[in-house]
Recover the amino acids of this structure.
């Protein structure tokens, strides 16, 4: 039971991370290898704000905005010139940013592990059946669900969401119908970066922050996005929940081979069903 | 062309003479550059010639290293352990991984090859008999008749011999009709299919040749360091080589070597002045991707051509 809840909490964290990656891919066609770096940057920026102001909640609001700004700047200055040059150049560019951010984080905040305690309102544990479960982890689960719901509403029920969906479906046609696609691209990339940073801040009270955290989580995020289907919100939620459980239980039952099997599943999905669970065929 | 060959020959002679001219640290750097130069050249056969951006190349590099380490430690310190077995293992793995990977393209190829290298990483990381996260230490250098490879200058010439072997082999491959077909695939895959070329077979052959040479580079890396660890298999090891290829110039053989020299040279040079050498390297790499996709070699040619 506690194991399953841990998996659920971890899955929600993966969802916050992967939903940005999948939206960026769906809209821009870019596999953003620097996504893990946005996550790490969010975590460190969150710690800085939390330590400076003493408020975790303020960190949860400010850090994602800062990182979204960084994302917007990167999209406009570096990615935009590469859209015409195909996926190889884009992937290489985002790989380069891993190096840059890794060093910047060490420079600004040092190499040691840092953490902050969860806010007072969420400290402590609750009794759950026979065991106990930290309140903060329950908060992460509910927070992830709330973000999923909000994102779904934003995409399905608002004008802006309709524009984004149109862009994901067919950017050229959307541009032909008068949508400023370039601006939507920037907005989506910024939002994706902001979501990764949000995951980073949320993760800090549980897993602490260290400079290599981005690279470590990136591959898991890719697994989620591949299994769920590139470009799909529902897929990213389903993929996150699946990987969250698979990794939590895998570590307990098959400690030696669980990661090998998970990477193997990623490869198999790419080969046999590249659209994943919920994706759709790409042009 | 002829002057380029003369330049390369002069460069090789100069590199061969290094152990008698400079101290042990620059010699070590040169050896590292030669090994990573082999690795980067083998990756460039996929990336620069056939247009396949593979994050799985580290799997073959690491596999070669592990096979060499096991054979040199446990079986026999011979050239068979140091060259034949690692190359054969990497070729076999390259055949399987390549056969599957070339079925998809674009970002799917990138992610599939990444998944494969991570499978190798996870397998080695969790295998007690491979030393788990620590890897295999105490890898001896092979014994060749009458040669003591523990002596710096002998080992230096040994690595240089492998480098020349890889360079000559790859030069023959890329200048052959086969290499021209690969270039055609990189340029426009559909056109090559329409012209009747069995494109998949050509891509697979390139993948296997690249994997084999990467395996040899990995074996040399294990002999150079005296150990091999799962890090060698991790996908970012492929990324590092991709970075070298891009900085030097993809689609050439000198480019990846130049890139390896720039990467390793800068790393050692900058790290003695500043801790922030990864920032500088990363920023330089981003600059190359944005403004000089043809790399250092391309820049040099642009200068020369006016």
């Amino acid at each position: 039971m506690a194991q399953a809840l841990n998996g659920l909490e971890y899955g929600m964290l993966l969802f916050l991370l992967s939903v940005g990656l999948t939206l960026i891919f769906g809209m821009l066609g870019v596999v953003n290898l620097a996504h893990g770096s946005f996550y790490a940057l969010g975590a460190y920026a969150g710690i800085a704000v939390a330590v400076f102001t003493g408020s975790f909640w303020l960190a949860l609001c400010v850090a994602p905005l800062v990182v979204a700004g960084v994302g917007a700047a990167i999209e406009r200055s570096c990615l935009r010139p590469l859209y015409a040059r195909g996926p190889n150049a884009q992937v290489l560019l985002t790989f380069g940013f891993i190096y840059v951010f890794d060093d910047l984080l060490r420079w600004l905040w040092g190499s040691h592990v840092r953490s902050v305690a969860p806010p007072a309102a969420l400290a402590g544990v609750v009794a759950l059946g026979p065991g106990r479960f930290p309140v903060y982890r329950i908060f992460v689960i509910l927070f992830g669900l709330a973000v999923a719901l909000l994102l779904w509403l934003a995409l399905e029920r608002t004008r802006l969401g309709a524009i984004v969906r149109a862009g994901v479906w067919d950017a050229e046609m959307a541009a032909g119908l008068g949508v400023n696609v370039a601006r939507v691209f920037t907005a989506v990339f910024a939002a994706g970066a902001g979501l990764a940073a949000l995951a980073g801040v949320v993760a800090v009270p549980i897993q602490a922050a260290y400079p290599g955290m981005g690279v470590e989580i990136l591959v898991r995020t890719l697994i989620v996005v591949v299994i769920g289907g590139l470009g799909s919100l529902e897929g990213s939620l389903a993929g996150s929940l699946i990987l969250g459980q698979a990794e939590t239980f895998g570590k307990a039952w098959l400690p030696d081979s669980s990661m090998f099997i998970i990477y193997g599943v990623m490869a198999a999905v790419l080969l046999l069903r590249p659209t994943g669970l919920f994706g759709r065929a790409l042009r | 062309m002829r002057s380029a060959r003369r330049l390369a020959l002069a460069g090789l002679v100069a590199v061969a003479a290094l152990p008698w001219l400079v101290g042990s640290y620059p010699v070590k750097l040169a050896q590292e550059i030669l090994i990573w130069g082999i690795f980067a050249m083998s990756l460039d056969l996929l990336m620069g010639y056939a247009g396949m951006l593979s994050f799985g190349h580290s799997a073959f590099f690491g596999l070669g290293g592990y096979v060499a380490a096991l054979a040199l430690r446990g079986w026999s310190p011979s050239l068979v352990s140091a060259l034949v077995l690692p190359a054969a293992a990497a070729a076999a793995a390259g055949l399987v991984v390549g056969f599957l990977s070339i079925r998809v393209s674009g970002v799917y190829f990138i992610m599939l090859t990444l998944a494969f290298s991570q499978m190798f990483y996870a397998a080695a990381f969790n295998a007690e008999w491979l030393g788990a996260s620590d890897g295999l230490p105490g890898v001896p250098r092979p014994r060749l008749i009458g040669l003591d490879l523990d002596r710096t200058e002998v080992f230096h010439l040994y690595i240089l011999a492998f480098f020349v072997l890889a360079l000559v082999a790859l030069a023959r491959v890329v200048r052959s009709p086969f290499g021209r077909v690969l270039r055609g695939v990189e340029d426009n895959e559909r056109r090559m299919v329409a012209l009747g070329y069995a494109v998949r077979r050509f891509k697979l052959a390139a993948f296997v040749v690249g994997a084999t040479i990467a395996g040899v580079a990995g074996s040399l890396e294990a002999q150079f360091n005296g150990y091999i660890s799962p890090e060698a298999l991790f996908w970012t090891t492929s990324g590092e080589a991709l970075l070298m290829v891009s900085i030097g110039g993809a689609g050439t053989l000198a480019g990846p070597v130049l890139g390896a020299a720039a990467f390793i040279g800068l790393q050692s040079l900058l790290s003695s002045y500043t801790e922030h050498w990864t920032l500088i390297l990363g920023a330089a790499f981003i600059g190359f991707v944005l403004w000089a996709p043809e790399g250092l070699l391309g820049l040099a040619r642009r200068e020369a051509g006016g």
Notes: Chain A touches chain B through 43 residues (CB under 8 Å).
